[in-house]
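User: My collaborator sent over this chain with a note saying "see what the structure looks like." That's all I know about it. Can you take a look?
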Amino acid sequence: MITIRRIQRNEGLLYKRMRLASLSDSPDAFSTTYEEANRRSLDSWTEQANSTAEGIDRVTALAFYNDEPVGIGALYRDAQEQGTGEVIQFWVDPDQRGGPIAGKLIIWLIKWAETYDYHLLIAWVHAENNRAISFYQEFGFNFTDTRQLFRNGTDIVSCLMVKPLSGETDPAQGSKKY
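Assistant: Without extra context I'll predict from the sequence alone. Here is the result:
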């Protein structure tokens, strides 16, 4: 059984577990490195989890399969563009890729954003990560001409993808396997 829910207060250990798993598995998908993240204190992890457990400007969603955490995704409101939210930290355990979890997780984030008056979602995607690009395109994200270096010390380029929100997310989306 698949469930998606918002992270809860004081789930810093769970948040740390999921982020470190994602950074270890997919180091070129995130601007933060495993080494940087692993140096953080438990208080720091708990504080960040708590900051996304309530309110409408930040949310972290967790995906569970048979009560085991297998995915994570976050959405942060842009401070300058209040109607814009950035999808970050999106990851699904490799054993669950190819199934419905990633689609259910992104739909949960999209519906949450629509509920709280977001009008545009953005995501920075590694320019050579065709699987991620196809995934985001299936859910209505489109390329822009905006590119940037992925992180200091690398020549990896990220592409900005955007999705206007209309309040009508099609739950049939996500039929492809990722």
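A starting point for your reply to your collaborator: The beta strands are 2-6, 58-65, 68-77, 84-92, 120-126, 142-149, 157-164.
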